Amino acid sequence: MIVVGGPASTKLASNVARELGVQCISLEYKVFPDGESYIRYPLESCDVKGEDVVIVQSLYPPQDKHFVELLFAIDALRHLGAGRIAVVVPYLAYSRQDKVFLPGENVSVRTILRSIERMGADYFLTIDIHKEESLNFLSIPSFNITAVPLLSNYIKGLRLEEILVLAPDRGALWRAEMASRFLGAEYDYLEKYRDRSTGEVSVKPKSLSVKGRTVVIIDDIISTGGTVALAAKVMKELGAHKVIAACTHPLLVGNALEKMYNSGVERVIGTNTIPSTVSVVDVAEIIVEKLKSILKPN
Fold it and tell me: Is the dihedral of CA 69, 150, 163, 187 positive or negative?
């Protein structure tokens, strides 16, 4: 088995290879003056003919560039005679456009997933996809794993007291429930509303008992930080002692961190599906665990 690190995930790919005890090869890549992407698998490093190959490439911004690089990599490895190709996309861009919200839209995640399959992927693996049902767009074996246990263990190590795990909306309630079991804490959620035309988010306060407690807001993605900032503001108004935000995918667009800190968030915790200053939890362990189960010797 060989692990191939895409340009977006060289460090994570290296961690995965180390956990597996196999070689990690980084793709050569560049961008031409006209903006076109170029990748090359360095044949002189290791021949892939007949070998099982794991490609690791996350699709964080610039997501279109990273997506094209991934397609090029799959295509190159398939034509080089690789055996089974497992594509690991720790953060799957466009996963939030999983249905038609307004007439005339396409289902972006369907386009992304089917393109990956048609390039030659045999297996697909991602982490905390926005909605697991999106994997039904694929006909190859596909897997969604969650980083909630890893995040929970990290939070547990902080030795916080009087914890309430909070989901920012009902859709993330299962995530809060899972984390609460690891932390031995209570959990709840906020009512969230998003205007589909403007994208503006609002939250509806609930009668939560948070006075003097540490509130851990947990979600799959923190993008602009608007939802977390609103939730933190509500929690502080209700008397929370401390607010911490945790997520699998720290996109942190623009001034997201500043926005959250200014709203009362004391700390933001993320995983390394996306490199950032808050990416303190390594997901290599759960990727390797799943790869071992799906890439058993023929």
Answer: positive
